[in-house]
Amino acid sequence: MELLPADGVLSWVRDSSGLVGWGCAARLDVSGRDRFSQADAWWRELCHQFEVEDSVGLPGCGPVAFASLAFADEPGDSVLIVPEVIIGQRDGVRWITTIGDGSAEPQQPEPVHPPGTVSYSDGQLSATGYRQSVAEAVRRMRETGDLDKIVLSHDLLASTSEPLDTRYLLHNLAARYPTCWTFAVDGLVGATPELLLERMGYEVRSRVLAGTVWPRGGHTAEQLAAELLASAKNRSEHAYAAESLAVRLRPFCSDLTVPDEPEVIRLRNVLHLATNVEGKLSESNATTGPATLLRMVAAVHPTAAVGGTPTDDAVLAIDELEGMDRGRYAGPVGWLDGSGNGEFAIALRCAQVEATATPGVGAGRGGGKVRLFAGCGIVPDSDPDLEVAEAEAKLLPIREALEGVR
């Protein structure tokens, strides 16, 4: 980690495998409803311009773009960054990819610095405001029946007494959540448990999460898992999410497998219901067009896991009830290579770093600022107080990473 530069780190790591990069060989900033198609066209055109020498031949070799796309059509800025240097590891094989002359090496690597004292304050939507938004959503769903589910979020601001080193967050998140995808793209840093889409050749898969319980005094992990599987509220919420993903992905596939029953995954802070969806892509499809990864991501985003059901109505209600700009929180984040492979997760358990360490400036020269996010799926029988508690549990990964909890 200390070999990476303190500024502009790009990361996608899970179980010690993945990609990290630095430097910027190319960058696209885009926004609006057409952000996915614009990004797809830009990346494909850029790949045509590369002359590639690849003796490894694994997914993630050759040119790679790290991507983080906004949750909403408006507002929200999305970004694709092609680093000048990429270090990769997969299946026990390590490699280095350089673009250009490969001169974008870290200059005089500095030790990773802790952020000092961390203090918190309300974001655009406080916990109290979040409870009110949840209560209003529940009232509307019970009275009108127009929505089956809506996913509402709120934010929390953190200030650090020392300059914030992104590498410090990444190291702590990867150590505590090795089975999550630890990412950093243009200041958005997190460890997400939810895989939106992975494409490797003609194989595609997704891990849908919805339905949550969190540790409470006197309850074992086994008891919590049994409680989660027996919960009609959580099972219903999960079914919406899994079905919404499958319906939108199926047109791209000649075969798609969706298990009848979810499983439980256990993290340090919460337990989730999970469904692993796997498919084989069609050779061609006149309706969907080429099954590029970004085209498929555009088709499935937002799933019911981060939007709601019906999705279009839920997204409109989110904008009204939250009253905040999510930015790239809950949007797709990941990477794609020049061969069409890649992985995109949903940007959860994350924070937007708004002020960070200044390269060449030692600790003690000003602090950092971070905006944390967390959200929950709301259905007609949701309890606002429990949803606030669940959101607080989902803020723990970033809070503990900032505070250096081991």
Automatic annotation (TrEMBL):
Catalyzed reactions per annotation: chorismate = isochorismate
A molecular function (GO) term: isochorismate synthase activity
Chorismate-utilising enzyme C-terminal domain sequence ranges: 128-394
Pfam families: Chorismate_bind
One Gene Ontology biological process: salicylic acid biosynthetic process
InterPro entries in the cross-refs: ADC_synthase (IPR005801), Anth_synth_I-like (IPR019999), Chorismate_C (IPR015890), IsoChor_synthase (IPR004561)
Annotated segments matching region Disordered: 100-121
SUPFAM superfamilies tied to this protein: ADC synthase
Gene3D superfamilies named in the record: Anthranilate synthase (3.60.120.10)
Key word Isomerase present: yes
UniProt EC number: 5.4.4.2
Coiled-coil ranges (or none): none
Enzyme class (EC, first level): isomerase
Family that this chain belongs to: Belongs to the isochorismate synthase family.
Protein name from the UniProt record: isochorismate synthase
Source organism of the structure: Saccharopolyspora spinosa
Lineage, opening ranks: Bacteria, Bacillati, Actinomycetota, Actinomycetes, Pseudonocardiales
